[in-house]
Amino acid sequence: MSSFRLVLAFLLLFLASQVRAAGFDTEDFSLEVPADFQGPITQPMGNNGNVIAFIKPHPATKTNTLLQITVYNPGTGTQPPEKTRLGSLAERYLGQFMEGVKGRRTNFSSTAPTSVTLGGLPAS
Question: Does 89 map to a domain?
C-alpha cells in the first residue's frame, strides 16, 4: 500500500499587495514565500510529521506573522481520510492549533480561516 501524505497548511496572513516571493521546495511541495519572511524553521513532529515555519517580524510592535506548514504522513497501513473530509479536517486542526496559541498570549487576535489548496490538497 502506498503512503499517504496529508499536508495541512496554516496561512495566517495573505498579503494584499504583490510582493517579491522566494521559492522554497521540499519533496512534498513547492511554495513561494512572501518577501520579508525569514526561515525556514523546521521541527519534527514525532516519526510521522514535520513542521516548517517562516516568520515576518514586526519590530515596532514586537509581534511576528507566522506562515506554518504541517506535513503529516500517517504511513503505510493507515486508512487515509476521504478527500471530501480533508478541508474540514484542516480547518479543525487549525482551530485546535490557534486555541493553543491563544492560551499562551495576553493580547491575541486572529482572522477567520481561509481555505486554500496546497499540493493539490485542501488546507486552511
Answer: yes
**How many structural domains does the chain have?**
1
Digit-coded pLDDT (tens) for 11-31: 333 333 345 678 898 887 788
Alpha-helical runs (H) found in the chain: 86-103
For 49, the grid coordinates are 510529521
Evaluate whether 115 touches 86 at the Cβ level (below 8 Å): no
pTM of the model: 0.67
Residue 1 lies in a domain: no
Residue-number span of the structural domain to which 73 is assigned: 6-123
